[in-house]
Each structure stands twice: as C-alpha cells, then as structure tokens.
Task: inverse folding
C-alpha cells in the first residue's frame, strides 16, 4: 500500500495549482497561435502574453517592458550575469557574488572567470547574511555587477536588498538578485535592484518558464539571438501556456494569508523538532527567514538516511549531505555558514507550501522524531557521546 | 536509484547494536566524509575446531548504502570461519546487494573492510 504523500520539498518544486492548470489548458489546445503572427489567433496569444507580463510587472512594481520571459531561473540567472558581463566589459571585468548562491549563479561566474573576468565570492555570517560593509569593501573601479541571492534556497536567509542595492547604486554598479525562492513569499520591489530573476515552478506554476526583470536603461547582451522576441532580449517563440500559467500562479500566490498560514505551520515544526536533543536550526530564526523554510542539522546521523526513512513514510524532504549529491561534496551553503562537514551531512531541509496542512506537519514531527531515534540507535557516535 | 535489496536491508537492518566485551572491533570511515562503520565480533569454534564468527553486530553512521552494506555484511559473515570471512570483499557485498550506485562504491561500501579490521583486531589480541 502506498502511503499518502506529504510533500515538504517545495524549495525544489511545487505542485501545480489546479487553477493554474485550468488557465493554461486552452493554450495547449485551441489557442495555439504564435504571438508574432498578425492574424487573430496570433493576436490572441499576444494579448495573453501582454496580460501576463502586466500582472508580473505589477507584482514587483515594475513597468511591463522591464519583464523578459525566459525558460526559468537558471536561464534568467545566466542571462543576467553573462549578459551584463559581456555588455559592460569595456567598463570593467570584476563581478561580486556570494558563497551561498545557487549553482547556476556560481557556475556562470566560474565560466566567466575562464573568459578573463575576475570574481569575488563574499563570505556570509552564521545565519547566511552578507555584511554590507564587505560588499562596499569589495567594490573596485573595475566592478560591473553584483549578484546576491534574495531568499536562500537551502537555509531561507532573506538578504536586505534595499541596503545592498543602495551600495551598488552609489558606486554605479549593476545589482542583480536571484529571487526564485522569495518571490511572492516576502516583499520584492523592483526599485531595489537592476535585475531580478523570477520563476514559476516554485510558486505552484509550471516548470520551464521564468522571467528576468531588467530595469529600463540597463546595458545587457542577449544570450539567444533570433527573431527579436521579448524586446530583442530573448529570441524564440514564446511559451504561451507557460507564461499564462506563470501569471496565474503569481495572482494566486500574492496573498498575505498564505504567508501567515505557512509561517504558522513552519514555526510549529521548528519548535517541535528543536525539542529533539542535539539538533540545531540552520539559518536565521526571525522574520528574515523565508516563511516556508526549515533546515536542521541532526548530530551523529546522516541526511540521506533520514530522508529515505521519511520517504518510506510518504514524506518528501531534501538534504545538504554529501551522500545525496552527485559530487559527494556537502552543501556549499551549509559550509559557508560555518557548519563542519559532519554537521552538513546530518542536515535536512523541509520546505512547506500553502497546501501544507496542520495534520501533515503533525505527522512529519512524529515520523521525523522516530527516524532520528532509529538512526541514532545505529550510530556509533551516539555511544561516544554518552561516555563523555 | 537503489536496488530493492538495498532498501530492504536499509529499512530492516540486521544485527544492529554492539557486543559488550567483543573479541574484535573493526572501525572504518571518517566523519568528515559522512560514513563511519564499527563492526563487533565474538569468535567461537565449529565442530571441526575452526574459529568462526559466532556473533556479529554493527553500528554505522551514513547513507542508505552504508547502512545496507553494513547489515548484509554481518548477515554474510555470521557463522563463517575467520578465513572465509576474510575472503568477503566490498565487491562481493555490492553484488549481494544487487548493485550500488557507482558513486557509492568507494565511499559507503566499507563494511567488509570493517569486518577484516575486526578479525585482525581479534588476531592481534590473541597472538
């Protein structure tokens, strides 16, 4: 018998809201026009895209023309970083980012290093925050771009975009932020950054669609050349159903009721799990944490095993343990906030959504407590501890 | 990603725990890498007078593969002569588990090494 699924991996992706599916559905069937066509079917698609663009622009207080649709977060981050780097290389070759970025930002930066750019990777404090003073110090006359993740995908740290953005503005440096995890979960205002990465599948929208906010006047080179779609920023026939679904997902998500609901459940989860001995919360504890994120380190045991036992009970989670990564390296984010490798191995991330229920959280608390006990019973380190 | 056999041993590991005053204790792994295994043995004799592994238990911290390979190793070694047990390799363990993911072969599949260490520990003590 398969157990009922309790999905607590919403940081990885989310369930498609049935209302979103319904909104997308006609664009998979009878409304199949190409938005570049001048006939009525094409114009129907054009209107749908324009309408979606307006909804998304409004959600971050941007102008419609400042929203470029892409295939998702990875493309938006690649576009922002490489696009700014190549368009502004006559101005300088220095980029600043942090040690807690998503791989698509880090690997874009590493690739640019091979092309002759210089990259500074800023440290963060124990809770994952960038120190504005460090940013100020790192900026040189060659700096052209600063890219800092808004809400961290692993530990939920929400950076102070207003303060960091102000520093960049003062030094006349472009400021990009990856807001894939934070979008609709905390306030996000276009005035704080020059470029903002957004995506749909973390907010109950479809996979394969995202956007990059590009402030008017920003000098950026497109990655995809072709028919000049998306204000000549990103060529390729638009993913109309995806874009329509994205906008519908935004409309549904922009509601503070959801944030309060998720936060209440998340806080209960954290409170109860911290009652287990030798466990700590990774990331900040207050309002500067994404409302749906909890990340724990359990001593003496390993995260993949915790996840596998939870999975056997129908509960989906994720871990920063090396054992579950392709590279067999523990999470770079957990190491950056000062965790020892063995603490990173024992980490577990639980990410909630507006569809998460009280019953699901209660069941998770119960099963997770049992799992920790079971694994610690097998662990040789638990014994060492008792001896001390 | 894991075989049914691996999941079976992971969910219901055999011979977990420790042996008080073991005849041999073998330790492998490194907490920094994530996997550590301790294997405890009690040695007895069979009818022919050969030394055998009379009892065996393990304690492991690590991933699914680490726990499953520890469990099956104790199962395979129990009742075997020390010579037979020394011939049990990590490769055989992986085969008995119906395979392990490639990246797990080197980091998590160490239980046979822990077993050999336990036997050597016993031999050293009884020279």
Result:
């Amino acid at each position: 018998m398969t157990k009922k699924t309790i999905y607590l991996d919403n940081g990885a992706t989310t369930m498609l809201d049935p209302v979103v599916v319904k909104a997308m559905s006609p664009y998979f069937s009878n409304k199949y026009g190409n938005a570049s066509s001048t006939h009525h079917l094409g114009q129907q698609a054009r209107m749908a895209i324009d309408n979606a663009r307006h909804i998304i622009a409004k959600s971050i207080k941007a102008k419609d023309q400042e929203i470029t649709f892409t295939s998702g977060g990875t493309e938006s981050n690649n576009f922002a970083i490489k696009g700014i780097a190549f368009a502004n290389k006559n101005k300088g070759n220095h980029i600043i980012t942090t040690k807690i970025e998503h791989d698509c930002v880090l690997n874009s930066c590493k690739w640019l290093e091979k092309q002759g750019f210089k990259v500074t990777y800023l440290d963060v404090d124990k809770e994952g925050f960038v120190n504005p003073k460090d940013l100020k110090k790192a900026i040189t006359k060659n700096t052209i771009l600063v890219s800092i993740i808004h809400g961290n995908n692993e530990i939920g740290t929400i950076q102070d975009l207003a303060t960091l953005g102000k520093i960049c503005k003062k030094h006349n440096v472009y400021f990009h932020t990856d807001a894939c995890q934070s979008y609709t979960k905390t306030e996000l205002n276009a005035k704080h950054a020059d470029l903002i990465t957004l995506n749909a599948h973390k907010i109950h929208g479809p996979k394969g669609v995202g956007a990059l906010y590009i402030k008017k006047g920003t000098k950026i080179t497109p990655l995809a050349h072709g028919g000049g779609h998306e204000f000549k920023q990103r060529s390729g026939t638009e993913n109309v159903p995806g874009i329509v679904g994205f906008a519908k997902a935004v409309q549904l998500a922009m509601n503070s009721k959801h944030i309060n609901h998720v936060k209440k459940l998340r806080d209960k989860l954290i409170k109860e799990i911290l009652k287990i001995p030798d466990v700590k919360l990774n990331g900040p504890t207050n309002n500067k944490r994404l409302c749906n994120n909890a990340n724990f380190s359990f001593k003496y045991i390993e995260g993949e095993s915790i996840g596998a036992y939870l999975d056997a009970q129908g509960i989906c989670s994720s871990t920063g343990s090396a054992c579950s990564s392709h590279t067999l390296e523990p999470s770079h984010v957990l190491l950056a906030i000062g965790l020892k490798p063995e603490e990173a191995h024992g980490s577990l991330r639980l990410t909630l959504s507006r569809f998460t229920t009280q019953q699901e959280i209660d069941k998770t608390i119960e099963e997770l407590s049992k799992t920790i006990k079971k694994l610690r019973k097998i662990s040789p380190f638990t014994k060492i501890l008792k001896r001390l | 990603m894991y075989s049914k056999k691996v999941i079976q041993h992971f969910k219901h590991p055999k011979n977990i725990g420790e042996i008080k005053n073991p005849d041999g204790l073998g330790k492998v792994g490194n907490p920094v890498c994530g996997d550590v295994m301790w294997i405890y043995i009690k040695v007895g004799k069979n009818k022919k007078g050969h030394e055998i592994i009379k009892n065996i238990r393990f304690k492991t911290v690590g991933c699914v593969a680490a726990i499953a390979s520890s469990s099956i190793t104790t199962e395979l070694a129990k009742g075997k002569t020390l010579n037979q047990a020394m011939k049990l390799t990590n490769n055989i363990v992986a085969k008995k588990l119906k395979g392990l993911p490639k990246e797990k072969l080197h980091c998590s599949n160490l239980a046979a090494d822990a077993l050999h260490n336990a036997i050597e520990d016993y031999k050293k003590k009884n020279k």
Notes: Chain B has six helices and three strands. Residues 91 and 105 of chain B are 8 Å apart (CA to CA). The first strand of chain B starts at residue 24 and ends at 30.
